[in-house]
Amino acid sequence: MTQTWSLLQTGQKESYKVAYTNARIIDPETKLDIKGSLLTEGDKIVDFGESLFSSGVPSGVNETIDCKGLVLMPGLVDIHVHFREPGQEHKETIYTGSKSAAAGGVTTVVCQPNTVPAIDSVILAKYLRYRAFETSHVNVEFYAKITTSEEELTEIALLKEAGAVGFTDDGMPVMNPMIMRQALLYSSMLNVPIAQHAEDLDLSAGGAINEGKISEALGVKGILNASESVMVSRDILLMKDIENVHYHILHVSVKDSLAAIKRAKDLGLNVTCEVTPHHFTLTEDIIKQHGAIAKINPPLRTEEDRLAMVEGLKTGVIDCIATDHAPHDRNSKDLPLESAAFGIVGLETMLPLSLELYHNGRMSLFDVLAKLTYKPADIIRVPRGRIRKNFVADLVLIDLDYEWEIKVDDFASKSKNSPFGGRKVKGLVVRTIVSGKTVYLQK
């Protein structure tokens, strides 16, 4: 198979019409599942339906794509990626990261702000947007920092005007509770999510992997489950009396965190959270096989926690799936566990790993795809992840049942730090369309 990519830049020409015929069209939000056709013009969806083109494709259409019965659905939305630009371009760039996204069927990403320098000023926010416009294959949104290097609040209102869809200090938590409360007050005023990397640094200090049987066997300092759940509980208490606030928990990983989140949701609080594919498919046991390649933060947990993540997705306590795509060069990972960098790449494995929940009968197809499309889009309040007339034509064509083996060396990402090499999966991205333009094609 061969793969080709195309830069997004301005998308499809305004009057260019593309007909997608013989498709299984799925929209998770409306639970649409039909065999039919879809028409785009420029960057918009013009029409779709079972009887569209029943009399043949009209002469005014510029291009016809036979979908051969494959699933045509909204493009995936990943609200947690690290593209390392500016400052660590040897690990990833917006160009290579967006290639990886396109290959994974992801049409919109949200870059985290812990770059070098961090996205904590309007100048850097504008730089990131410019680089994305010049070099990206997909839509690039971004979070800005909550705090400056002096541990003071950033210019949150100005950064929102500059395009930030939310705020986080991801990579590190906001440890100071007064700073966190002030950030939550800004969320209330500006209608933006405040996203927390939930980790009490006093409880996790010096830890490399989950505290448990594997850390004991390897003689490595572990990270307590409570380091996450304590911070989640603290922040929920801080937001409890603030009206119209939105608190989002990044990469949730432990059962106790989900219990606190469920209680908050039951009280009507606007708390959302995400989980990564690696946290609902892997456990700490994989460390014995992959070592530092499987070192992530939060760490891979126990089977009990993994099953809790699956249950959280099923019940809706977990709102969406996000990758925490964290590329690292070989030198950052070829080290003892205590010294190696945290993180794995995930954009090109997001879809098939998530589809395991469907293929294994744990969740319906609609429910899995919802966690990858409109639900994450709604968290950051961008109009993506849906098939609607006059909506932006961000689409992905997938072969739902295609079986293949993950080959890490074939990733489009600059970095290859993934523990999923050799895993047999189902579900292959065939074509990715952003703003009406094909940006990725597998032949």
Explain what this protein looks like in three dimensions.
With 443 residues, the protein is α/β, with parallel strands linked by helices. The protein folds into two domains: 3-73 and 391-442, Urease, subunit C, domain 1 (Roll), CATH 2.30.40.10; 75-379, Metal-dependent hydrolases (TIM Barrel). The protein has helices spanning 94-103, 122-135, 156-161, 177-190, 201-204, 213-218, 226-239, 255-266, 277-281, 287-290, 303-315, 330-333, 350-359, 365-370, 374-379; strands spanning 3-5, 17-27, 32-41, 44-49, 63-66, 71-74, 76-81, 106-111, 139-144, 166-168, 194-196, 209-210, 222-223, 247-249, 271-275, 320-321, 395-405, 424-434, 437-442. It is globular.
Indicate the proportion of strand residues: 15-25%
CATH fold-level topology of the largest domain: TIM Barrel
Helix content: 25-40%
Number of helices in the DSSP assignment: 15
Weakly predicted, low-confidence segments: none
CATH hierarchy class name of the largest domain: Alpha Beta
Structural class: alpha/beta
What is the H level of CATH, i.e. the homologous superfamily of the largest domain?
Answer: Metal-dependent hydrolases
Provide the domain count: 2
Number of strands: 19
Mean pLDDT score, rounded? 97
